[in-house]
């Protein structure tokens, strides 16, 4: 078992014939992903990577369905509609890789999907990796072997670094989930923590956060109260040296007040019993030591 | 991107929010715009910079006559202003706003902003105007009120009325004026796709509400469909430093921080974490530089050249976790940049991930005496920090 996806997940890629879509579709297929169809307006009727390409998500579901998940490699300006289209076609998991989606579009998208049975991951995220089983997005497939650590993160390459360190420490990962670095993510940390809590394969959770907002503290709180700290939670927060009021790369990483600084987040999380790792080079080691003690 | 006060003022005026009469001074030739008896109640001379806290650093002067206003404006134009919020950096004043002094009955705080926890925008309103929002939240949290902004229906009038008549203590004859203004602010925030629209202070006068100072931050992702924002964005590019402008042209994300070790990293999270790591070793990073996840070789080369042209650096630290970005491409970009712009300080590169072996081969062949390559992150950091310490005489 893993969370959100596994080797049986039937995957659609929206924007499959675009540059990024095509590149990652092929890599994902090689990494074990069960790719069943693609959507590319204007390219309907073609075959690509041995799967059919359709004009719309609706026809893809009708003719190549059932489809469990869709991965979006569409332009930022078209993301809002692509999310709506996938949700309306009844797809339960929509992973939005696209970066630069206007905030207003995500506000509208969240309003559109409210009450519908769909989970949106992203935008501006690396997606989901279940090593050896499924890759929904752009995470390097060999970054870590299968194992028992669940990783959830707002970053991309920082996540790979963490997963790599987990691998170097002789451990593996159950699922890696990048929820994205934007101010309005489709899914927040708490929701993913709840999934990892229920997942039999996951024994501990690593959360990679950043400055900006209060999602990390909220998730730590949720872990402590609702999830009753059943599984150990490790956290790393990037941005201790980030100046106030400057957007660090992507729209979500901005420290607006003293409360969303890395130091304030770390302190709040420690207070709740989270193992907060301060040194970037010690992520793997800290998790390893703690997991050894448990045995 | 943040707008200057006078630009924000123009945005507010264009959507019907009252602001004080004013003139904008961009060069000394504009000083004649400040006329005798133009503002009988007094002249407020304000340096136009995007960093907050200017009032405490001499960036705002209140004078009685046009003559005094002209001389204050002249003095401010071209001067350097550093405030407690600019992090020690001095910002050049390229523009001055001279506004009419207003007789204020009471100061309020009003802002439209995204509530991240709820995932939708809200209006933040407080009677404690003039204070910074953080300070209000910390010291008088009970006086900070939130009204949701719906993307379709805006801010609800009845909720605003309840607040106005209740905790905000707005006199009945001014309540409708307040509601009208708050609704306009909410609508403008949505329509113009802003990250922040803050009016502080919002002055209550006998004649109604007036925005004395305002701050606007644009959603850069929405520029493609916001031609007016695009125009403002273009205007403000010229306010950026040379290196920042260069980075914008390359479409990489660069923010100067002030230390001596230049950083080049792929990914914003890893870039921040790398800066934190240097700082924890007692060495200050010079910048945040995220070359992105899918950057091409030209972009990479440009990013290297950008760092090579920064004369304040004592060393450069490169941290690449190749996923989609291939390490061999980074190696080639580094060599090309060196042949064009010449690397003058030691460069420590930590390369990991896709095609790292090929990258090592390429760099070994190039025999660059200033370049060290590591696979291990902690070893690389120690190495660059030692170089930095040595050159600092530590």
Short description:
The complex is a heterodimer of chains A (about 300) and B (about 400). Chain A is of the alpha/beta class and about 300 residues long.
Strand residue percentage of chain B: 25-35%
Q: How large is the count of helical segments of chain A? A: 9
CATH architecture descriptor text of the largest domain in chain A? 3-Layer(aba) Sandwich
Mean pLDDT of chain A: 95
**Fraction of residues of chain A in helices?**
25-40%
> Rounded to an integer, what's the Rg of chain B over CA atoms?
25 Å
- What Rg of chain A, in angstroms, do the CA atoms define? 19 Å
Q: Could you walk me through the main structural features you see in this protein, from its secondary elements to its overall organization?
A:
The complex is a heterodimer of chains A (295) and B (394). With 295 residues, chain A is an alpha/beta fold. Chain A has 9 helices and 14 strands. Chain A folds into 2 domains: 10-121, 3-Layer(aba) Sandwich (Rossmann fold), CATH 3.40.50; 143-294, Rossmann fold. The longest helix of chain A has 12 residues, at 19-30. Chain B has 3 domains: 21-100, ATP-grasp fold, A domain (Dna Ligase, domain 1); 106-232, ATP-grasp fold, B domain (D-amino Acid Aminotransferase, Chain A, domain 1, 2-Layer Sandwich), CATH 3.30.470.20; 242-392, 3-Layer(aba) Sandwich (Rossmann fold), CATH 3.40.50. Chain B has helices at 5-14, 66-76, 133-139, 157-165, 172-191, 227-237, 242-250, 268-280, 297-308, 327-341, 356-366, 377-392, and strands spanning 22-25, 43-47, 60-63, 80-81, 91-92, 96-100, 106-115, 120-126, 144-150, 154-155, 194-205, 208-211, 214-218, 253-256, 261-265, 287-290, 315-322, 347-353, 371-374. In chain B, strands 7, 8, 9, 10, 11, 12 and 13 form a 7-stranded antiparallel beta sheet that branches. A 4-stranded antiparallel beta sheet of chain B has the order 1-6-2-3, covered by helices on one side. In chain B, helix 9 crosses helix 10. Chain B starts with a helix and ends with a helix. Classes of the chains: A alpha/beta (295), B alpha+beta (394).
